Amino acid sequence: MPGCFCQVLSAGGCPLSLQDLLQRRRHPSGRIWGILSSEMARRRSPKRLYSVRHSPIHGRGVFALRRIPKGTRVIEYRGERISQEEADRRHEETNQGPFTLLFEVDDSTIIDAGVRGNSARYINHSCSPNCEAVNDGGRIFIEARRDIRPGEELTYDYRLETEEPMTPRLQAMFGCNCGSRRCRRTLLIVESVAPASDGPPAEHG
C-alpha cells in the first residue's frame, strides 16, 4: 500500500503507510492525519470524460468535459437484457413512440436502457456523429470516431431499422433534429444516405 508523501523526514520520507494514516496513527510532524499529496488525490479521483445536461438536439444529452481522443471507449451502453418479444411487448404497453432506449445487440437480445441503464441512454442521435456504437462480444460500447473537443455533445447514428415500407409519414414519426449539414431528417436507416462525421466545430477568433 502506498505511503505518505509528506517527506517530513530528511532521509527516506515518511515511514507511515496510507493504512497507518487511515487508522489515525500519529504522524512524525505531530499531526494525526499527515498530508496526502495532490498526486495521490488525483489518482483517487480521475477526471470524468462527460456530463449529462440539457441538449439542443433533444431532452438531455451527454457532453465532453475534456478532450476525448479518437478511438476512446467513452461508456458502455447498459440496461436490462431482454428478448425481442419482450421488447415489442414493452413498447406496445407503454406506447411511447420510437424505440430510442432499446438497443439491439443481436437477433435475440435487446438492451432496455430504461431499466438499470446508465448515462449512455442520454446520448442523442446525429446523422453526422462524433461517436459510434461498437459491439464487442455482446457488450455495446460508445466509441469516439474522431477527436472530440470539450463542450461538444456526444452523438452516434441510431440507424433504426423497420420492416414497414419507408414512407414520408414513417420517417417523420422518427424525425431527427440533429441539425448537421448532412441530416437525413430521420433516425431510420435511409440507404441512399451514407453516415458521415462532421468535423469539429470551427473556431471563431
Secondary structure category: alpha+beta
Give the strand content: 15-25%
Percent range of helical residues: 10-25%
CATH-defined fold name of the largest domain: Beta-clip-like
> What is the topology, as strand order, of the major beta sheet?
3-9-8
**Average pLDDT, to the nearest integer?**
79
| CATH homologous superfamily placement of the largest domain | SET domain
CATH class of the largest domain: Mainly Beta
The total domain count is: 2
Q: Please tell me how large the radius of gyration is.
A: 24 Å
Described by strand count, sense and barrel closure, the largest sheet is:
3 strands, antiparallel
List low-pLDDT spans.
32-39, 201-205
CATH architecture descriptor text of the largest domain: Beta Complex
In sequence order, what are the helices and strands, one letter per element?
A: HHEEEEHEEEEEEH
> Which shape, going by the Cα principal axes?
globular
